[in-house]
Design a protein that fits this description.
With 351 residues, the protein is of the alpha/beta class. Helix content is 35%, strand content 14%. The protein contains twelve helices and eleven strands. A six-stranded parallel beta sheet has the order 8-7-6-9-10-11, with helices on both faces. A five-stranded parallel beta sheet has the order 3-2-1-4-5, with helices on both faces. Strand 4 (92-95), helix 3 (100-111) and strand 5 form a beta-alpha-beta unit. The longest helix has 17 residues, at 21-37. It starts with 11 loop residues before the first strand and ends with a helix. The model is unreliable at 1-8 (pLDDT under 50).
Length: 351
Amino acid sequence: MLFKKNKSSLTRLLVLRLSAMGDVAMTVPVIGAVATQNKDLRVTVVTRNRFVKMFEWMPANVQVMGLDLTEYEGLTGLARLYKELSRADYDAVADLHDVLRTKYVRTCFRMGGTRVAVIDKGRKDKHALVGHGQDAEPLRHGMERYADVFRQLGIEVDMSLCQPFSTKGEDFLAVNAFAGRKEEGERWVGIAPFAAHEQKVYPLDRMNMVAQMLLERGCKVFLFGAGPKESEELKGWECAGMRSTCGQLNGLHDEMLLMSKLDLMISMDSANMHIASLFGVPVLSIWGATHPKAGFTGWRQTPDSIVQADLPCRPCSIYGNKPCQYGDMRCMKAITPEMVVEKAMRMLVSL
């Protein structure tokens, strides 16, 4: 089959990544690097509606298309999606997701003569990592796996040249009204205590203790969560110097603006870890059932900004979606609030 254009003549690129939130966030620096280093390339990113805000600080040659996937269900819906996307006459398709929906769309493009590249998720290596985190070598980082997809298409991308987002010129009015004025020498710490799977969540009573200990050390604490259950939990933590952002800001955009003003974000292996890192905010992440060696740490996150217990059973799964084999979540219980706070204060002092 003949391709429409050779590698050197790509000008219009379609990028597919529909979910999940943390994975989409990890694509942002990579796509930003691609667009910045290839200014003649027009990049269209297709993702879910609720993730579009994460791409607001992209270079001008990036366009983001948000989808309501309920409008494209079944083969009929996917056929309609392909028809809509194909009107733009893309030179190439980068599938950063490799799920049934994107497989269908990319196959249609390939059959039409469009160049296609697909992510290698390293499933075999990840499977081999389960239960061997102590001894195994770290796997290729997810962002480099994304970058490899563009390299397959002959597109230059050097992640070392990519810079964090700048919020210069942004309207912080709503954020400032909520957060107040940052006093000289005051440290603002974000805490995002939730994750998609329970096995990745540090016990909430212990995380509340972490927050209280940070308050005692003069930090101002902002709590991040979403949904009624999380909102109710975090509201119960509020006190002088500690506020929940749930329902208080104008959606993800303002939450990201607030994150950009933090001195430190404390999170699980979750989307907030990745989103905060987009702005160059130092991230301290707590790992239980999952393992940083799987390649899902925050952008530019270093080993000294990770809290974990070196147990031979870790990771018990790659995504944290399987129950603890012992039923006691010993990987999280081995981490004391004092361990988290000590590392957080070291990071804050080094700023």
